[in-house]
Amino acid sequence: MNTLNRNTAQRRSKSSFLSWWTLPIAALLLSPLAAPSLAADRSDHEVPRLSLGDLGDLFDGAAGRSAGPSGSEALTSAIAAAQSGPSFKDKKCVDCHRKFGPEAKGLHPIITSWGCDACHVDAHLGPQQRYKWLSTDLTKLCVRCHGGKEFNNKTQHSPVTFRMCTTCHDPHVSEKGYLLTSDEPLLCFDCHKSDRFLRRVRHSPAADGTCSTCHRPHSTESPKLLVKKGVCFSCHDKDEFAGGKVVHAPVQSGDCARCHDPHSSDQDKLLVAGDLCVQCHKPEAFQGASVHSPVASRDCSSCHRPHKSEARKLLTKDTPGLCFTCHDEREYKGKKVVHYPVKSGECASCHSPHAGAAPFLMTAAKICFECHDEKEFDGTGKHIKADHRWCVGCHNPHQSDHEHLLRKKR
Ligand code: HEC
Ligand code: HEC
Ligand code: HEC
Ligand code: HEC
Ligand code: HEC
Ligand code: HEC
Ligand code: HEC
Ligand code: HEC
Ligand code: HEC
Ligand code: HEC
Ligand code: HEC
Ligand code: HEC
Ligand code: HEC
Ligand code: HEC
Questions:
Q1: Burial level of 275, CB count in 10 A (0-12/13-18/19+)?
Q2: Which of 67, 130, 139, 201 could pair covalently with 74 via S-S, beta carbons 3.0-4.6 A apart?
Q3: Ligand 9 contacts CB of residue 250 (under 6 A)
C-alpha cells in the first residue's frame, strides 16, 4: 500500500466514529429544493484521472512550483514538478488548487488542520465513485463534524433539514466570514423573494439587511427561526406596550406580528392590513341602522389604543371625556337642567359608540322607555299622551335652559 492509500484508510476509520445524520433520500428528491448538483454522483466528469503509476510521482513535488490547474499543459508541468520529491502530503493538492492554499483568507479550518482528504477521497485516482470525489454524499458530509444542537432544534430551516449546507456555505474558503457564499441579506434573497422586505414602509432592522438580529440561520426552539420569544422587546420597551391596566389580548400574548409585519408593509406603522381591527373583531358589530362616522371610516384608534390603556376597553379616555374630544362639551353641560344620565356621563346608556339599532346610534328604538315607564304617557296620567317618536320634539334629550328639559319656554 502506498502512502496515499494508508492515509485514506486512516481517515476512513476516523470518520466512522463521527456521528452524522441520515437524510431520507426520497425526501430529498421530493423536495423542491433538491438542487440538480445534488441529484447524483457523477463519474463521467472530464477531470484528469492520473494513473496509479503517476501517483507516487505526482505528490512528491516541491511546494509551490506548479502552475494553476488550467488545461493539460499546466497539468503536465505540475506532474513534472511533482516528480522531484520523496513524500506525499495533503498540501500538495493546493500546488494546483491554489485558491485553497494556506495564504487564502477565510479558509475552512479543517483544511488547515486536516487537509483536503477530510472530505475528498482518492481524488484523481480513478473514476469518481461520488460527486467530486467526496468521501460521502454531500448531504451527509458536513454533519459528520457539525452535528450539534445548533442544527437539530425544533424549528429547522428547510435547507438545514435537508442538509444542503453548501447553499449558504462554501466548503473551502470565503472572505465573507463563516464561509458564507454571500452577505446578508443577499444570502437570504437567493431563496426568499426580496419584494416583501422592500415595501413602502420598512422596519429599520430588516431594511438594514441584518436578518440575524431576529433570526438564526439553522434551527431554533422558537417558531419562525426567531432568536427568542418576545424578540420585539429586545429593542422596544416592553412597558410601553404591555405594561398597562388594560392590555390588548394579542399584545399580552406577544403576537406583535398579528398586527405588524416585522419586515415591511404598504401600510403606515408596518400594519398588516388597512382595516386591521376587523380582521379579528367581527365587522357585523360595526354595522347597523346608523353607524358612527369614525367607525364607518375604520378609524378605531381615534377612540382605542392598540396596545394598552389606563382606561377600560382600551379607550384613549373614559366616557364622556372621550366623546367630548370630538363633540362640543357645552352641548351637554352648563345649562339649567341637565338630563340625569347625561350629567352622570353615561352617554352609552342611550348611544352605542359604534353602531345603533336606531338612528342617532340609539341603543334601542324606544329609548326613552328604557328608563321611563311607558304607561305614564298613555294619556291616563298627568303627562299628555305621547308616542315615543315625539318625545324629543318637546324635550331636549341632553340639557335645556327650561324646566323639564323642554326645548321651548312654556
Ligand atoms: C497536478 C495538479 C493537480 C493536483 C496535484 C491535484 N489536482 Fe485536483 N484537479 C486538477 C485539475 C486540472 C482539475 C480540473 C480543473 C478544475 O476543476 O479546477 C482538478 C479537479 C479536481 C476536483 C474537481 C472534480 C470535479 O468533478 O469537478 C477535485 C475535487 C479535485 N481536483 C481535488 C483534488 C485533491 C483533493 C487533490 C489532492 C489529493 C488534487 N485535486 C490534486 C489538478 C490537480
Ligand atoms: C469540508 C469538506 C471539504 C474539504 C476539506 C475540501 N473540500 Fe473540496 N469540495 C468539497 C465539497 C462539498 C465540494 C463540492 C461543492 C459543490 O459542488 O457544491 C468540493 C469541491 C471541490 C472542487 C471542485 C470545484 C468546486 O469548487 O466545486 C475542487 C477542485 C476541490 N473541492 C478541491 C479541494 C481541495 C484541493 C481541497 C484541499 C485544499 C479541498 N477541496 C478540501 C468539500 C471539501
Ligand atoms: C472533518 C470535519 C469537518 C467537516 C466534514 C466539515 N467541517 Fe466545517 N469545520 C470543522 C472544524 C474543525 C471547524 C473549526 C471549528 C471551530 O472553529 O470551532 C469548522 C468550521 C466551520 C465553519 C466556521 C468557519 C469560521 O469561519 O468560523 C463553517 C461555516 C463550517 N465549518 C462549515 C462546514 C460545511 C458547510 C461543511 C460541509 C461542506 C463542513 N463544515 C464540513 C470541521 C469540519
Ligand atoms: C440559510 C443559510 C445557511 C444554511 C443553509 C446553513 N448555514 Fe451555517 N451559517 C449561516 C450563517 C448566516 C452563519 C453565520 C451567522 C451565525 O452563526 O449567526 C452560519 C454559521 C455556521 C457555522 C459557524 C458558527 C456556528 O454556529 O457554529 C457553522 C459551523 C455552520 N454554519 C455550519 C453549517 C452546516 C453544517 C450547515 C448544514 C447542516 C449549515 N451551516 C447550513 C447560514 C447557513
Ligand atoms: C437555499 C434556500 C434558502 C436560503 C438561502 C434561505 N432560506 Fe429561509 N427558507 C427556505 C425554505 C425552503 C423555507 C421553508 C419554506 C417556507 O416555509 O416558505 C425557509 C423558511 C425560512 C423561515 C421560516 C421558518 C419557519 O419555521 O417558518 C425563515 C424565518 C427564514 N427562512 C429565514 C431565512 C434567512 C434569515 C435567511 C438568510 C440568512 C434564509 N432564510 C435563507 C430556504 C432558504
Ligand atoms: C425585527 C425582527 C426581524 C428582522 C430584522 C427580520 N425578521 Fe424575518 N421575521 C420576523 C418575525 C417576528 C417573523 C414571524 C412573522 C409571523 O409570525 O408571521 C419573521 C418571519 C420571517 C420569515 C417567514 C415567512 C413568514 O412571513 O412567515 C422569513 C422567510 C423571514 N422572516 C426572513 C427574513 C429575512 C430574509 C430577513 C432579513 C432581510 C428578516 N426576516 C429580518 C422578524 C424579523
Ligand atoms: C433590532 C432592534 C429592533 C427590533 C428587534 C424590533 N424593532 Fe421595531 N423598530 C426598531 C427601530 C430602530 C425602529 C424605528 C424607530 C423610529 O423610527 O422611531 C422601529 C420601528 C418600529 C415600528 C414603527 C414603524 C413606523 O413606520 O413608524 C413598529 C410598528 C415596530 N418597530 C414593530 C416591531 C415589532 C412588531 C418587532 C418584533 C417583531 C420589532 N419592532 C422589533 C428597532 C427594532
Ligand atoms: C392589535 C394590533 C396590534 C398589536 C397586537 C400590536 N400593535 Fe403595535 N400598533 C398597532 C397600531 C394600530 C399602531 C398604530 C397606532 C397609531 O397609528 O396611533 C401600532 C403602532 C406601533 C408602533 C409605533 C408607535 C408609534 O407611536 O409610532 C410600535 C413601535 C409598535 N406598534 C410596536 C408593537 C409591538 C412591539 C407589539 C407587540 C408587543 C405590537 N406593536 C403589537 C397595532 C398593534
Ligand atoms: C389579532 C387579532 C386582533 C386584532 C387585529 C385586534 N384585536 Fe382587539 N381583541 C382581540 C382579542 C382576542 C381580544 C380579547 C377577546 C375579546 O374581547 O374579544 C380583543 C379585545 C379588544 C377590546 C376589548 C378590550 C377589553 O378590555 O375588554 C377592544 C376595545 C379591542 N380589542 C379593540 C381593538 C382595536 C381598536 C383593534 C385595531 C387596532 C383591534 N382590537 C384589533 C384580538 C384582536
Ligand atoms: C367613538 C369612539 C369609538 C370608536 C371610533 C370605536 N370604538 Fe370601540 N368602543 C368605544 C367605547 C366607548 C367602548 C366601550 C363600550 C362599553 O361601554 O362597553 C368600545 C368598546 C369596544 C370593544 C369591546 C366590546 C365589548 O363588548 O367589550 C371592542 C372590541 C371595540 N370597541 C372595537 C372597536 C373597533 C374594532 C373599532 C373600529 C372599527 C372601534 N371599536 C371604534 C368607542 C369607540
Ligand atoms: C373621533 C371623534 C369622535 C368621537 C371621539 C366621538 N364622536 Fe360622535 N361623531 C363624530 C362625528 C364626526 C360624527 C358625525 C357628525 C355629523 O355628521 O355632523 C359623530 C356623530 C355622532 C352622533 C350622531 C349620529 C347620527 O347618526 O347622526 C352621535 C349620537 C354621537 N356622535 C355620539 C357620540 C358619543 C356618545 C361619543 C362618545 C362615546 C362620541 N360620539 C364620540 C365624531 C366623534
Ligand atoms: C337619555 C338618552 C341620551 C343620552 C344619555 C345622551 N344622548 Fe345624545 N342624543 C339622544 C337622542 C334621543 C338624540 C337624538 C335626538 C335629537 O336631538 O334630535 C341624541 C343626539 C345626539 C347627538 C347628535 C345630534 C346632536 O345633538 O348633535 C350627539 C352628538 C349626541 N347625542 C351626543 C351625546 C353625548 C356626547 C352624550 C353624553 C355626554 C349623549 N349624547 C347622551 C339621547 C341621549
Ligand atoms: C338611562 C335612563 C334614562 C333614559 C334612557 C331616559 N331618561 Fe329621562 N330621566 C332619567 C332620570 C334618572 C331622570 C330623573 C328622574 C327624576 O329626577 O325623577 C330623568 C328625567 C327626565 C325628565 C325630567 C327632567 C326634569 O328636570 O324634570 C325628562 C323630561 C326626561 N327625563 C325625558 C326623557 C326623554 C325624552 C327620554 C328619551 C329621549 C329619556 N328621558 C330617556 C333617565 C332616563
Ligand atoms: C307635546 C310636547 C310633549 C311631548 C311630545 C312629550 N312631552 Fe314630556 N312633558 C311636556 C311638558 C309640557 C311637560 C311638563 C309637564 C308638567 O309640567 O306637568 C313634560 C314633562 C315630562 C317629564 C317630567 C315630568 C313628569 O311627568 O315626570 C317627563 C319624564 C317627560 N315629560 C317625558 C316625556 C316622554 C318620555 C315623552 C315621549 C314619550 C314625552 N315626555 C313627550 C311636554 C311633552
A1: exposed
A2: 67
A3: yes
- What is the spatial distance between Cα 319 and Cα 349, in angstroms, rounded to a whole number? 11
Whether 385 contacts 377, CB under 8 Å: yes
**DSSP helix/strand/coil, 366:** coil
Return the C-alpha cell found at 249.
389580548
Q: How far is the CA of 333 from the centre of ligand 10 (A)?
A: 24
Distances (CA, A) of 268 to 201, 202, 241, 284, 326: 6, 9, 18, 25, 24
- Nearest ligand to the C-alpha atom of residue 19: 3
Nearest-atom number in ligand 2 for the CA of 142 is: 1
What does 191-253 look like in DSSP terms, one character per residue?
A: TS-SGGGSSSEE-HHHHTT-GGGTB-SSEESSGGGBSSTTGGGGTS-HHHHH-SSEE-HHHHT
Model confidence pLDDT, tens digit, residues 112-142: 999 999 999 988 888 888 899 999 999 999 9
| Rounded Cα distance, 156 and 223, in Å | 9
The residues facing 260 across adjacent strands are 271
- What's the Cα-to-Cα distance from 39 to each of 24, 139, 289, rounded to whole Å? 13, 11, 65
Three-class SS string for 289-324? CEECHHHHCCCHHHCECCCEECCHHHECCCCCHHHH
Q: pLDDT tens, 229-253?
A: 999 999 999 999 988 899 999 999 9
256-268 CB burial, b ≥16 within 10 A, e <16: bbebbbbbbbeee
Q: Given its phi and psi angles, is residue 313 left (phi above 0), alpha (psi -120 to 50 degrees) or beta? A: left
Cα(284)–Cα(276) distance, integer angstroms: 15
